[in-house]
Fold this sequence. Notes:
This protein is α/β, with parallel strands linked by helices. The chain has helices at residues 17-21, 35-45, 47-54, 72-76, 84-94, 112-126, 140-153, 198-201, 215-224, 246-253, and strands at residues 2-4, 11-13, 102-105, 133-137, 160-162, 183-185, 191-193, 206-210, 235-238, 262-267. A six-stranded parallel sheet has the order 3-10-9-4-8-5, with helices on both faces.
Amino acid sequence: MVQPGSVVGNLLVSASETLARSEGPYTVEFHPQRFQQLAMHRALDAPMAEGMLRTVIPDMSDSGVPAGTPTDEVVESLPASLNEGQRRAVASALQVGALHPLVVWGPPGTGKSTLGAFIVWHLVQQRPTNLHILIAAPSNTAADVLCSKLARLGLDKDQMLRLNALGRSWGTLPDDIQQFSYYSLGDDGRPAFSVPPLPRLRRFKVVVTTCICAAHISNALREEGAGTRGGWFSHVLVDEAGEATEPETLVPLALLRAVAGRAILLGDHFQ
Length: 271
């Protein structure tokens, strides 16, 4: 495992005890992992991403209220435990036929992730037959937090999947969300993460993953021959979007279905 060195020009390399005690000289080869770069390049070329980039800024020339703005009646019908801004954000996420992404921003500690979990929970409670939500975040920690919040709100393992990186260590996965993960036992008897077959993936109401790992779904669609048609998700929610690069956020957003899809971005706009 390569680790960054504290001195410019130096590189610290973890090695087995046998290698560490052996004498050089050594030949070192670096093999870059292309998965992340390939995922972002493909997302940039996806038809859904191209359409998303064209409609990021609403056209308000015809009306002072952009499509998908919630009515006061919808806002007032939401729980009083939410403040005015949170209720308006939830109501906007519930709007059908909105043409533009919903962006919720604010500094750390203002409840954006909790709001995102409540939006997803509220959508699931409506139980529409064609509801499929993809939740993504730039880090495992952020994705795990959202998965834990949704588990506490009542989503079970038949409704929600935590899709992990194939190379992630089982020991880094919090105990309370292990039941939501898809894995098999390796030759050494240890759990190894894998990607469910597409028919099984489509049965989950909610899939939680990192932005880059959402590419596993795109790759599965490509292998099926459906890659050019995009995904099947009615909603794609990206938490901590301010920490991710634009191409990184487009990896999950490219899986939004072409008709009546809803994109939701939450994050700190100063990051």
